[in-house]
Amino acid sequence: MQLLLAEDEQKTVDYLTKGLREDGHAVDAVGDGADALALALRNEFDAIILDVMLPSLDGWEVLRRLRAAGRATPVLFLTARDHVEDRVRGLDLGANDYLIKPFAFAELLARLRNLARTPKPSPGGSLVMVGNLEIDTLRHRVTRAGLSLQLTSKEYALLLLLVRNQGRVLSRTLIAEAIWGLFHDQQSNAVDALVRRLRAKLDTPFATALLHTIRGTGYVLDI
Q1: Domain residue extents for the chain
Q2: Cys bridge to 61: 25, 57, 96, 122, which one at CB 3.0-4.6 A?
Q3: Exposure letters 187-217 (e unless 16+ CB within 10 A, then b)
């Protein structure tokens, strides 16, 4: 993968650059938010590893401007900011994943492999497709096999979360954090109920299921 690394701590830059290149990736590293944004807008990257606390522009603003410019490059936040509110904010801004420091390098590699499978938007920038499922993220319109799906705001948020993590099993806790901003196992019932409602609209009318339950683990959307 061609990667952009935006990180201002030199030790972390050296560690990540060495490890990623040994794993076969090409890495461009910058330590400034404005430089990261300029490079991301000028060049095509397979993924961006983005710290939150950067000089000039913080990671939030880099991602906001990147998405506002219509660029859908997958973004992985790699940061010490571990509050639920931070993770939710990152996902709401359009991040594809969020990994907290300290981290295991093997997990970072696995998450990058997952980003490589992220569904690609259409040239228009707002249409995401998974099989016969189409999501217009600009207009919040969802269709499957040409049929319009009428989703509530929570159902739409869950679908978008699953689509952005296609092929990755999401735990109930992670879903609860992203949808409600809550970190509590008691929310598992609410997650299950929301999944049932989404599945009734997304899968029940069609021959092939997209939303799968992984018993004891969570849920995954995949073809």
Answers
A1: 2-116, 127-221
A2: 57
A3: beebbeebbeebbebbbeeeeeebbeeeeee
